[in-house]
Amino acid sequence: MTESGVQLLARLEGRRCLKDIEPRLFPEDGGPDHGEVVELYGTEGTGKTELLYHLLCRCVLPKAAGGLEVDVVFVDTDYSLDMLRLVSILDNRLNRARSTSSPLAGSDDAVLRLCLSRLLVVHCSSSSQLLLTLHFLETSLSSRPGLALVLIDSISAFYWVDRAEAGASVPKQEERLCKCTELLGRLLRDYRITVFATCHAIRRSNSEPSTSSDSDRSYLCRPWQRLVTHRLLCSRQEAANFTVNAAGGSKEQRRRQVFTVHCTSYPSSRTKAYRNSSFYVTDAGVGFI
Q1: Within the chain, where are the H helices?
Q2: Which residue intervals define the domain RecA family profile in the entry (predicted)?
Q3: How would residue 248 be classed by pLDDT, with cut points 50, 70 and 90?
């Protein structure tokens, strides 16, 4: 049956806005709106994927456990999605909600399965597959109004492969990612979703001249850079001491790795804004300082 314009508008208006997905990461009232893109940029080991797990759990968890109850697509281009880790974080958060007397309907297993039912995982092994995946997403988006978030880990996974296959021609090197970006832009506009994508910083050789900001500069194609409305620059600090609750109710000092995030938001409707935040990672997921 053909969908009328009124039906389409009603369905799209019902798609969840994710401005409040994680207020501690973004400037005040500056979270990603409908149709906006957040890039998580940094070298390996700076907490980018852990942040994606944190955001994913926030979306699929029930409202009684502090979640948003929306569907999520995780596009895994690095084949690094750790489902055991994800389930562990979800389980910890559900247990925490139950310990605070939050009314979670159903057994532990039933609630966990309901959370996972809101997640669709897609694997890609090339930029061509990524393009096909984005075409496939249109069908999912049109049939699932609850699908509000697309996570891509990572958007830069095929950068070097595409460069090697295309030779010295920069337009050919960037051709597939440009097509992916064009299609993603249309999905953002037509279906009003929100996208978070990680991007690995390039490690430059010691022989190359560089400045302190070289590793922070985006190197992906210009269409992708224009699509990004929020940029989270992730880095790693020295380990710090934290006081934690130990067995028997006692407290003890433990050293934990601390990660920092510098957020730059520059959506078209507002002036550029900034925010700095820090977090650490535990068995229960990300903890903000």
Answers
A1: 5-13, 48-60, 83-99, 108-117, 127-143, 159-166, 170-191, 222-227
A2: 10-201
A3: low
